[in-house]
Amino acid sequence: MVLSRSSALGPFCLETPASEKRHVSIQTTLEGLEGLVDLNGAGRKSCPLCAEEKFKACYSHKLRRHLQNLHWKVYVEFEGQRMCICHLPCRQLKSSRLVAHYHCVVCSVTIARKTDMISHLKRHINKGETEASYSGSSDAYEIMKELGTNVQLLPNHTTPQKTDTYFSRKMKTNRQLVFCSLAILAEERNPLECLDAFGATGIMGLQWAKHLRNTVKVTINDINEACVNMIKENCHLNHIRVEGNRTGRQLDGAGDADSPIASVEVVKMDANVILHLRPFDYIHLDPFGTAVNYLDAAFRNVRNLGIVSVTSTDTGSLYSKSLNVTLRHYGCQIVRTEYYRELAARMILASVASAAARCNKGIEVLLAVALEHFVLVVVRVLRGPTQADESAKKLRQLLHCQWCEERVFLKPGSMVEENLYRQLPCQCHGSMPGKTAVELGPLWAGPLFNTGFLRRMLVAAVQHNMEDIQPLVKTLICEADCTTLKLFPVPGYSALSNQVECGVVIKTLQKVEEVDPSDQSGKRKTTGEDSGNVLKKIKADTSLEHPAFYYSIHRHSIRGMNMPKLNKFLQYLTEAGFRVSRTHFDPTGVRTDAILAQFKEVLTKYSVPTYSSALQSSAVSSERRQTL
């Protein structure tokens, strides 16, 4: 092994014959640590794991005790590799103070405390990451694989304030949902131009190109130079060619083993600029925080019947924690409610519909998902002022009762109503003093799901082996139809059924849309008759609209009563003649067309008093004692 010092990071690195680099503080034996410096030679020698200002040069006997008692004594062991404590300037704070730290043998990240390093290694073991991965470059990269795509990650990739190439493993569900929606659009039109406006590491665009190949023309954009360089490196890591422009995108030598499997275009530009300059069929917006600053630009050049997906991660303002920020970004008045997640999705859709209407475009909501870390909405763009007017009519105010949390959308119209409380089904205003309801909005009052689109998403998820999101998509399908999971027919997706169902879907979509891919003006050629037929088929594809919002069974439980199980309660509501389903917004939520009074009536009917169950159990125990 050859001892060298990295000019970029400062610490020593050991170069193995395989051209891999690991930090010098990672050793297997004490002899290996002492072998980093010639302890048998004469004269003063510096410590290989300490900076000059930390430990001055000394003689061999003192340096040997220093290596044993400081660096080797507090090592962390992992599969035979011992990570000794390091005092080199690898981890330097803004105050220029050196911090002692460990270098992870798996991902090369630096961690200060020994207990934190042990917990970090346990997380690697739980994820199945037990092999050390070292990058050949001067920076310490972690190689992460998701959906067959490899990406390089910087050590601080999970902290946006400390790195430019931010990456979150918690957003895997979001990436797979976006991928399935793009896969459906790729079946409708070919070629398909899609844009990942905020690339970061480029993993989303690389997954599009790697799995959909020549059916899509992927453009990955980011304004940061470090992100653009990282995206290009990740392209080479996945054998994907980087295109500088749109000319010559056909792959040469596609049959060779060393030839690229796909090609993408990497652009360094502000997202608003590229959205104004070029038209796209599919646009995905995933900035860090809110996406309202990019909606106008996104709808300006998106093609007719194209798709725009928006991911918002500003959960503080969306989930009613920062009401002033909510009013500033979305122009919406909200309060904290039991249905706050669906309220966030409808609030984003109201901003999306307003931005589309300003560009004389309407929207059809295909999907709305609100989970712990993000809110995702996917909409199809319908060009024309008529469609824009139809979408604008679905923006309404919501009347919310603060006592019982009953809610209802206000009726459309410009006439002032004398008593708005009459629109609420509850009687709280008559029995309670003062004002009992608040007016929220504007919100999207239309449906949140398209059943046909979700079914095609389930087919795409099965095709690409996305097992993580299949239960979620099935829940969304039941929620869109407002039916229970037991009544939902889930076919056995064998290879033959996949081919038959996908063939039916492709033929149906080809009948729905016929586009001219040779048109370079950014507009799809559709005659008036064809456009009308398309809209009719899209409306026919959507089934009966699901009820707005949901009720939490635990929020409306009766004190001193034992509630029935959730699945049993859904069955009771169905027997009472109501449409009912579970919702992904809340695991204890029930989406139903019953009003709150009817909901509570069924809940009260099938709830059992707590004391009666205790008496029954005591009676059973006494009978057992008598028999014994």
Key features?
single chain; 628 residues; alpha+beta; Rossmann fold; 4 domains; eight-stranded mixed β-sheet; three-stranded antiparallel β-sheet; 36% helix; globular; disordered N terminus; tRNA (guanine(26)-N2)-dimethyltransferase activity; nucleus; metal-binding; RNA-binding
List the helices and strands and how they pair.
Blueprint: E1 2-5, E2 12-15, E3 21-23, E4 26-27, H1 30-34, H2 60-72, E5 76-78, E6 81-83, E7 102-103, E8 110-111, H3 114-126, E9 142-146, E10 149-153, H4 172-188, E11 192-196, H5 203-212, E12 216-221, H6 225-237, E13 240-243, E14 262-267, H7 271-277, E15 280-285, H8 295-301, E16 302-312, H9 315-318, H10 323-330, H11 340-358, E17 361-370, E18 375-383, H12 385-392, E19 395-401, E20 407-409, H13 428-431, E21 437-444, H14 451-463, H15 470-481, H16 495-512, H17 528-541, E22 551-552, E23 561-562, H18 566-575, E24 580-582, E25 589-592, H19 596-605, E26 608-609, H20 610-627
Parallel strand pairs: 11-12, 11-15, 12-14, 13-14, 15-16
Antiparallel strand pairs: 1-2, 2-3, 4-6, 5-6, 7-8, 9-10, 16-18, 17-18, 19-20, 19-21, 22-25, 23-26, 24-25
Helix pairs in contact: 4-5, 4-14, 7-8, 8-11, 11-12, 14-15, 14-16
Please describe what this structure looks like:
This protein has 628 residues and is of the alpha+beta class. It has four domains: 26-125, no CATH class; 142-243 and 261-393, Rossmann fold, CATH 3.40.50; 449-491, no CATH class; 550-612, N2,N2-dimethylguanosine tRNA methyltransferase, C-terminal domain (Phenylalanyl-tRNA Synthetase, Chain B, domain 1), CATH 3.30.56. Helix content is 36%, strand content 19%. The strands form eight sheets. The protein has an eight-stranded mixed β-sheet, with helices on both faces. A three-stranded antiparallel β-sheet has the order 1-2-3, with no helix packed on it. A three-stranded antiparallel β-sheet has the order 4-6-5. Helix 7 (271-277) runs parallel beside helix 8, helix 8 (295-301) crosses helix 11 and helix 14 runs antiparallel to helix 15 (470-481). The longest helix has 19 residues, at 340-358. It starts with a strand and ends with a helix. Residues 1-20, 133-139, 245-257, 486-531 and 534-543 have low confidence and may be disordered. Its main location: nucleus.
